[in-house]
Amino acid sequence: MIPFTLEKARNAEQAIAAAAAGARYIAGGTTLIDLMREEVERPERLVDINALPLAEIRVENDVLVIGALARMADVAAHPEVQARQPLIAESLIEGASPQLRNMASIGGNLLQRVRCPYFRMLDAPCNKRDPGSGCSALDGLHAGHAILGTSDHCIATHPSDLAVALVALDVTMRVLGPQGERSFPVEDLFRLPGNAPHLEHTLLPGELIIDVQVPAGAYSRRARYLKVRDRASYEFALVSAAVALDIEGGQIRQARIATGGVGTRPWRMRAVEEALAGKPPQRQAFEAAAQLAVREARPLRDNHYKMELLPRTIVRALELAGEVA
Questions:
Q1: Is 182 helix (H, G, I), strand (E, B) or coil?
Q2: Distance from chain centroid for Cα 83
Q3: What is the rounded distance in angstroms from the CA atom of residue 151 to the CA atom of residue 257?
Q4: CB atoms within 10 A of CB 89
Q5: CB 42: neighbour CB atoms within 10 A?
Q6: Where is the signal peptide (predicted)?
Q7: Residue 306 in contact with residue 300, Cβ under 8 Å?
Q8: Which of 277, 297, 266 is nearest to 95 (CA)?
Q9: Which tens digits make up the pLDDT trace of 95-110?
Q10: What's the pLDDT score for residue 24?
């Protein structure tokens, strides 16, 4: 590990000033420390933000507010989260082992780096790690890589399960930085790789995630998260689907669907949602709509199986959501 300095921020202003001067935030450190050990990440200065009062979970005007420093385990077990937004609780439980959930923060989970093996191989070209060096996955091992939102410079999937659920639920995030406070949809946090895959998010230098705000909706309780992976224990998704349904009078009034394991960022399935509106919550309607999920996909040699697995996963997640009382 490359030597670094560590300081502890006493307040948000001190943390932001340090980050604006080049320091990196650290909370749970479940991704950053691993990458530092492997010398993929080489920050010279870290600022510990765990003392900041950003771990509260509360309800304001029917909006669930989750602090950026709340631990995954605490959020998943919180009675308000389980009652109001079970999709979030389920995605957190599916997203990491109990040990990691006890350490990892909500903000850190959203900003975790990709799990492409070439990103961690210092002797392999990777445009995320070394811009302009090339993408080893294009002609290498890419069975677990993306089929949506890819470019000739990167095909790595975004790894967060939680982010998929938050995108499906139209969650807003609040950040604070040198230029003040701003809010925007979680979906807008993530960049497509394009020709600059090393730029993964839209945060400005020094900006600190404060919280995420989850609006209530008739779809919130009839929701499920389905994750398909190589093994049942802790593993990243080959394909996942976060689904929330508003059903009334035997018809789907509104559907919210986002997927993981298939896109270079959490992928909202708006065409599928629109196709389901006004339809009965039945398998035939689910299957017809789910085919739209792969309309713009660009599979490669080894990940072409996701063209079939993705619609099937969406269909099964819709069935599970429809069964929720």
A1: strand
A2: 22
A3: 23
A4: 21
A5: 11
A6: none
A7: no
A8: 266
A9: 999 999 999 999 999 9
A10: 96
Mean pLDDT on 150-173: 98
Distance CA 158, CA 111 (A): 10
Predicted confidence band of residue 232 (pLDDT cuts 50, 70, 90): confident
Quote the tokens at residue 17. 């000033």
Q: What angle do CA 204, 205, 209 make, to 5 degrees?
A: 65
Pairing of strands 208-214, 180-185: unpaired
Rounded distance, CA 106 to CA 161, Å?
A: 11
d(CA 307, CA 86) in angstroms, rounded, equals: 28
How buried is 102 (Cβ within 10 angstroms: 0-12 exposed, 13-18 middle, 19+ buried)? Answer: middle
Tokens in use for 2?
């490359």
Each residue's pLDDT tens digit, 243-300:
999 999 999 999 999 999 999 999 999 999 999 999 999 999 999 999 999 999 999 9
Contact 223, 234 (CB under 8 A): no
Residue-range domain boundaries for the chain: 1-51, 223-323
The predicted-structure confidence for 51-65, as pLDDT tens digits, reads as follows 999 999 999 999 999
> Taking the model in full, what pTM does it have?
0.96
In the CATH scheme, what is the homologous superfamily, with its name and number, of domain 223-323?
CO dehydrogenase flavoprotein, C-terminal domain (3.30.390.50)
Domain 1-51: assigned CATH number: 3.30.43.10
- Residues 11-41 pLDDT 10s: 999 999 999 999 999 999 999 999 999 999 9
Residue 266, both tokens: 């959490």
Ranges of H-type helices in the chain: 12-20, 32-37, 72-77, 79-84, 86-95, 98-103, 106-110, 117-120, 161-168, 270-276, 283-290, 306-323
Q: How far apart are CA 277 and CA 155, in angstroms?
A: 32
